[in-house]
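User: My advisor, Dr. K., asked me to get a structural model of this assembly before our group meeting. I'm new to this, so sorry if the format is off. These are the inputs:
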Amino acid sequence: MGILSFFTKNKTKVGSAQTAKERLQIIVAHEHPGSTVTPAYLPELQNEIIEVVKKYLTISDRDVKCELTDKVDSNMSVLEVNIAMPKS
Amino acid sequence: MGILSFFTKNKTKVGSAQTAKERLQIIVAHEHPGSTVTPAYLPELQNEIIEVVKKYLTISDRDVKCELTDKVDSNMSVLEVNIAMPKS
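Assistant: The format is fine. Below is the predicted structure of the whole assembly, which you can bring to the meeting.
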């Protein structure tokens, strides 16, 4: 299944009240076959990507939700950043 | 289907020769309901994200493949960055 589950998980949460909301979703998936070690750079990369996004969009930190998950079975580390935005 | 297709598309391409290769995949999906206009910032955001990744990983421009797609039916713009990495 891999990182597909991150999207299906979110899709099921979207109700009619949220339908009109703008949303930015950033997924960073690192496949590292042959190693079970999570890349150490991912949390820092996450912060830098959010800083870059802030140059282009007006977002506050409370609108940003981040999650770092390891899929041990597939040697994949997945960083998920969800940003809810005020309607432009 | 949404952006699920981007992942399934790549999965089907992975053969035995590529199995051991490290891969970084970055997906930026912007849902903008009520507007069919592609966010103008996405191509610039793409370049800045790649510059950030270069701080942490040794990659060359030829290893980076980018694709910007509009899903008109769901008012979603999807930026996909695929980076093949030398085995660490």
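One thing worth pointing out at the meeting: Chain B touches chain A at residues 2-4, 7-8, 11, 19-35, 41, 44-45, 48-49, 52-53, 55-57, 87-88 (CB under 8 Å).

User: Perfect, thanks a lot.
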